[in-house]
Amino acid sequence: MKLIKNGEFVEDRFATVGDEDDLPDGPVIVSLERWQAEGDALRARNTAIGVRLKSGQEPTPIVEDLDKLDVVALEFPTYRNGRAYSYARLLRERHGFKGELRAVGNVLRDQFQFMVRCGIDALEVGDNITPEIWAENAGSFSLYYQPAADGRETVLSLRHRLAQRARERAAV
After folding, report:
1. Using CA atoms, how far apart are residues 172 and 166, in angstroms rounded to an integer?
2. Which domain holds residue 170?
3. How far is the C-alpha of 112 from the C-alpha of 5, rounded, in Å?
4. Given CB 3.0 to 4.6 Å as the disulfide criterion, which of 16, 48, 62, 157 pairs with 70?
5. What is the pTM of this model?
C-alpha cells in the first residue's frame, strides 16, 4: 500500500500490528481492542502510536486518549459504508483531534476529495494509484454543496455573498 499524506506520496513510518503480533520497534497502529487492553504498556514504549477503528467502532472509546494518539486510522470496508466520514468530522470538529486521520481499507479514487473535506489527511491507497491520478482527483471539484471540516465555502453561501454584493452595488 502507498500512503498519501497532505496531498503528497510519503513513506509510511507506522507498522499496522495485529492483536496477537509482537510489537516491532518504532511507531505502530493497533486495533481498538489492543489499545483498550494494553494502552498503558503501549504508551510506555515512548514512540508514536495509532489506533485503527473498524467501520462499526465509534470513536467514543478513544476520545479521552486523543492527546496520546498520533494517528487514528478509520476503516472504509466498502464504498457503501460511509460511517468513517462522520467519525472523521466528529474527531476533527467536536473532539479537536489534531493528529493524523488516516483512511484505510477500500479507499477509492472517486472518494479522495470528500475524505479530505471530512478531515482525513492521510490515505492508504492501492499500488495502482499514481501521483497523476491523485492530482486529477484532488482537483476535480471547485464548488461544494455540503459544508465539511475543511471550512470551504458552499455554493449556497457563495450565492448569498454574491447576491449581497449585487444589492450593495445597486444601492449606490
Report:
1. 10
2. 143-172
3. 12
4. 48
5. 0.82
Q: Which of 61, 41, 162, 89 is nearest to 51 (CA)?
A: 61
Interatomic CA distance for residues 87 and 103, integer angstroms: 11
| CATH at residue 31 | 3.20.20.70
Extract long-range pairs of 74-82: CB within 8 Å, 24+ residues apart.
74/101, 74/102, 74/103, 74/104, 74/120, 75/104, 75/105, 76/103, 76/104, 76/105, 76/106, 76/107, 76/111, 77/105, 77/106, 78/106, 79/106, 79/108, 79/111, 81/55
Q: Are residues 151 and 134 in the same domain?
A: no
Answer yes or no: are the C-beta atoms of 97 and 91 closer than 8 Å.
yes
Tens-place pLDDT, residues 123-168: 999 888 888 887 777 666 666 667 776 777 777 888 888 888 888 8
Better pLDDT: 113 or 47: 47
Separation in Å, CA 21 to CA 15, 59, 89, 101, 165: 11, 23, 31, 23, 61
- Grid coordinates representing 112 are 479522495
**What Rg value do the Cα atoms of the chain yield, rounded?**
19
Number of domain units in the chain: 2
One domain, residues 72 and 157? no
